[in-house]
Amino acid sequence: MSFLNKEQQAQIGDAITAAELNTSGEVVLYLCKKCKGDIYEHAQEVFNKKELYKTEQRNGVLIVLSYQDHKLAVLGDEGINNVVEDGFWDDVIKHMVDQFKKDAYADALAEGIHMIGEKLKVHFPYQSDDVNELSNEILHED
Fold this sequence. Notes:
Structural class: alpha/beta
Radius of gyration: 14 Å
Helix content: 40-55%
Strand order of the largest sheet: 3-2-1-4
Strand content: 15-25%
C-alpha cells in the first residue's frame, strides 16, 4: 500500500488494537484511492459487503478514507449509533481532517481511532469473554 508506509500501517494497527483493548466494540479502517459518488453511500456498501454488522452488540465502527479525492466517512452500526451523542462522528471527522491538512495522515487516523475507542469503552466496556469479532487489518481497495 503506497499511501501509508509500513511504520504508519503499524501505528494504525496498534491504535486499533489499543482502542479495542478496553471495549467489546470493533473499529475497522478501509482505504481507497478514489470514491465515485457519495462517500457515505460507499461506506455503507463496504459495511454491508464486509459484513461489519455481524458483531454481537452491533457496535462496529467503519472509517473510510478515499485519499486521492479527500473524502472521509465514519459509520457506526446501530448499537453504537443509538448511544453516542449527536455530532460525535462529525467531531471525529473534523479532528482527523484538521490533522490531514498538516499531512499527518497516520497520526490523524490513529487519533480518530483513539477517540472512537474511548467512546466505545464508555458504552461497550470490555467483557472478560470478549473476542475480536472483526480483523484489525487495514482493509483497502486495489
